[in-house]
Amino acid sequence: MTMEPALLEKKGHIALITLNRPEARNSFSPEMLVRLAGHWEEVRDDANIRVAIVTGAGDKAFCSGADLGQLIPLINGARKPQNEWDQKILADPNILAKGLLRTFDVTKPVIAAINGFAVAGGMELAQGTDMRIAADTAKLGVQEVKWAIFPGGGSTVRLPRQIPYARAMELLLTGDLISAQEAYDLGFLNRVVPQNQVLDAAFELAEKIAANGPIAVQAIRKSARECLGRPESEAMGMESRFAAPVFKTEDAREGPKAFMEKRRPNYKGR
């Protein structure tokens, strides 16, 4: 594998992003976050990409969060910038939020292929995805509180919405890790599979989604995310606004036509 700390590969309509610092448990360095933010932008802007998968290199960690020797000292002023990546992080604080999918929406479904430890910022990145498949050996949690750090990648907002409140608070305030099976039982994961099957399972799911009408997929995702937590009457109106343009697309004509002709639809994203 190349030495770049965040890689982007395109396989048909699927983008694969790999956090590539296995020697550091794929922790976030300044360079990794800058490159990761750029990859998310590319996924959003490439019309040929319909689904993205994010995973970690190696078999130990998905991501162990911020590099406590590089990133945190840079952010809190204990370390001066030493290279262009450090300078980019300090010049644009949004890079961190974008890399972690905290405030940046790629507009397309993202699947986390959690091949090992997903801790702190790694767990927060997973929270920013739409679906998650984990190795049966994986451990997950937000441990920032143990180091007197705030889990500012979105955990205090997202985790209580994605799992039951009391369990979310326990994880946030103790910093304890849970097993993949526990995370599955809480509804945080879609599947738990053997470690060597994580990426295959993620691609299987991605391929199913990529075979569907891309405009419909993006509109459904947008509606589900933006209507979450809204009063039902308001959410129904929003759903109607998201749905209406979909029915006017070429793909919306192709889908029923292909069904009647008993053939596979050829969706073009328009």
UniProtKB/TrEMBL annotation:
One of its GO terms (molecular function) is isomerase activity. Pfam families: ECH_1. GO terms for biological process: fatty acid beta-oxidation. It comes from the Bacteria. The keyword Nucleotide-binding does not apply. Keywords: Isomerase, Lipid metabolism, Lyase. The keyword Isomerase applies. Belongs to the enoyl-CoA hydratase/isomerase family. PANTHER family: (7AS)-7A-METHYL-1,5-DIOXO-2,3,5,6,7,7A-HEXAHYDRO-1H-INDENE-CARBOXYL-COA HYDROLASE, ENOYL-COA HYDRATASE-RELATED. This is Enoyl-CoA hydratase/isomerase. It comes from Parvibaculum lavamentivorans (strain DS-1 / DSM 13023 / NCIMB 13966). The lineage of its organism: Bacteria, Pseudomonadati, Pseudomonadota, Alphaproteobacteria, Hyphomicrobiales.
